[in-house]
Amino acid sequence: MNLWYDIDSPVIAAHEFPAVLIDLACSRDIEPDKLLRGTGIFMDDFLSGQLTIKPQQCLALIGNTQKWLPAADTAFLAGHRLYPGNFGPAGTALTQAPNLMEALQALQAYGFILTPLLTPRLSLDSEFAYLYWHESCAESAHSAFLRHMMMTAVTSLCRRLCGLSLPWEYFLPDEAQHPEQYAVNWGNRVRAGRHYTAMRLPRALLSTNCPSGSASMAMIARAQCERTLGSRPALGFIAFIDQCIRKRLPGHVSLELVADELQMSPATLKRKLKKHGSHFQQRYDTVRKELAIEWLTRKQLDVEEIALRLHFHDSRNLRRAFKRWTGVLPSAL
Amino acid sequence: MIRLHKWKLLAIALATNLTILLSLAVGDIKPWASIDWLDIIGEGGVSLLAALWLVFTLNSRPTGSVTNLLSLGLALIFVGTFQDLMDEVIAIEDGLFLRGGIESTLMPLGLVVLTVGLYHWHKEQLLFTEQRRKREQDFREYRMQDTLTGLGDARFLKQQLEALQTQCQLNHQPLTLLLLDLDHFDQTNRRFGHREGDRLLRELGELILLNLRRCDLLCRYAGDRFAVVLPNTGELLAGQLAEQLTRAVEHFAYKTNQGETVYHSVSTGMATGADKSEDSAQALIERATLRLLAAKDLKAPRAA
């Protein structure tokens, strides 16, 4: 059984996630063969509903979509249209969830179907529910597009499930690129330049009922998923490696240890990471950056403690690394 | 282009062919040694550019008298320069009409026809500019145009807002920014499909334009949010205009493709930059957005 999928494993059903992009382009009168040029996807295969494509083909499709629909609102439109879509039982588990909590849990559990290129991670504390978004298969040129699309998709879905707008707060890693799109699609709680991608909601709202949901339907859909999808890899390779590292911390982490866990030689792991446009130190630094920010802002740990947990010699070294990762000192957060 | 302008293209191809044949009939091909490559590059370049202008013109225009004039002028220039190019490759005896004669008649003739064409194109353009006045006022930039509605986008809005603010401050006039946001647009999209939603936005843009004054500027901010810049307008007048627009949208009976009638309402938010105030365009937009959200909250309470 495979635990992860590679950037070139054919795992994404073309009629699920990619369909929304093809559909959007067609509704804007873009010729299908122009849109699919260079992606290795053919319209007839797509329409057969049997086609599975590789994550890299899906990324190429996003590239083409942006080329032919260069307007700033493309990602947001695609996000609004993504759910309920045609996602089989995973989609049913999502849209029939009886409350918001179960919807977000379904999104996380079946992320490899519902959002195969950007992996959601739900994290709760006493005050807020955070939904973090991580790279799934590769650091790509389209990560901003995917971010905008997926966060809009979740916003739109939750509004639809609950029947009212929710006070989501958004955290973006870079500067605000399309403030007008954020204002219209997400509202006025958008925090740019935060070095991570997440959205959060007051935790109390997770128990909000979804009037159109049905607990029994959702339960059946989940059972169906377990039966038919149990053997499917649940995470993209990069997300899987990041998860390994995150789980091991604050214990010892090294390329050899992770390779051992994946039952492959360190050389193979190196080669695989290279294929996904990354390397071990980059993964290790990314996870440590995310954890450092999380612990600083949510757990209010002090820098000494974090340095210890993340294997820095002392807090001065952590401060220097943090400055390198984010451009600011930990105290500036 | 080929479908619309096939006769013109055919005639140009024929004329070009004819000049080649005629030149060959009366002259002989020059030996390599006596060909002046600088001339070939210079005249060939002019000929190529003329052909390129012709392609752009034909490609961007429907048929009609202005198109005919423009393409005739450019075609004459092209054939003239092409014959000039032939001169360089084919030796023609001095004294024959083909030696320089074609070029010196076709080129001036072409330029005159092109000038007449440009004059009429200018008249035509004035007509369109008047029609597009409330969309672009004194500034046109196709790269800042929203492809769906043909209105300016958020960047265009910000740029024009800044320009109009400076202008109003110079004249000691107030200026108001009005934001209009459709209520429950997502439900319309879900009920009737996104194609209907797109068409609704386009028609709504037209409707709002009809209700504006000549000096006002309408932009599509993003999604279902429109922005209207109202120069020389204080809060009181802007309030009346907002009220008029709200009523216009409420009475707009949008027909879906199935013939179903759908009514919509809008929420508005406005911000006035008073005389001499130091507000930036961004600050004005943010103030109007806050008022708009407050108005939305009154209609449909959010989860706290």
TrEMBL record, chain A:
<protein>
    <submittedName>
        <fullName>AraC family transcriptional regulator ligand-binding domain-containing protein</fullName>
    </submittedName>
</protein>
<keyword id="KW-0804">Transcription</keyword>
<dbReference type="Pfam" id="PF12625">
    <property type="entry name" value="Arabinose_bd"/>
</dbReference>
<feature type="domain" description="HTH araC/xylS-type">
    <location>
        <begin position="235"/>
        <end position="333"/>
    </location>
</feature>
<dbReference type="InterPro" id="IPR009057">
    <property type="entry name" value="Homeodomain-like_sf"/>
</dbReference>
<dbReference type="Pfam" id="PF12833">
    <property type="entry name" value="HTH_18"/>
</dbReference>
<dbReference type="InterPro" id="IPR032687">
    <property type="entry name" value="AraC-type_N"/>
</dbReference>
<keyword id="KW-0805">Transcription regulation</keyword>
<dbReference type="InterPro" id="IPR018060">
    <property type="entry name" value="HTH_AraC"/>
</dbReference>
<keyword id="KW-0238">DNA-binding</keyword>
TrEMBL record, chain B:
<dbReference type="InterPro" id="IPR029787">
    <property type="entry name" value="Nucleotide_cyclase"/>
</dbReference>
<keyword id="KW-1133">Transmembrane helix</keyword>
<dbReference type="InterPro" id="IPR043128">
    <property type="entry name" value="Rev_trsase/Diguanyl_cyclase"/>
</dbReference>
<feature type="transmembrane region" description="Helical">
    <location>
        <begin position="106"/>
        <end position="122"/>
    </location>
</feature>
<keyword id="KW-0472">Membrane</keyword>
<dbReference type="InterPro" id="IPR050469">
    <property type="entry name" value="Diguanylate_Cyclase"/>
</dbReference>
<feature type="transmembrane region" description="Helical">
    <location>
        <begin position="68"/>
        <end position="86"/>
    </location>
</feature>
<dbReference type="Pfam" id="PF00990">
    <property type="entry name" value="GGDEF"/>
</dbReference>
<keyword id="KW-0812">Transmembrane</keyword>
<dbReference type="InterPro" id="IPR000160">
    <property type="entry name" value="GGDEF_dom"/>
</dbReference>
<feature type="transmembrane region" description="Helical">
    <location>
        <begin position="37"/>
        <end position="56"/>
    </location>
</feature>
<feature type="domain" description="GGDEF">
    <location>
        <begin position="173"/>
        <end position="304"/>
    </location>
</feature>
<protein>
    <recommendedName>
        <fullName>diguanylate cyclase</fullName>
        <ecNumber>2.7.7.65</ecNumber>
    </recommendedName>
</protein>
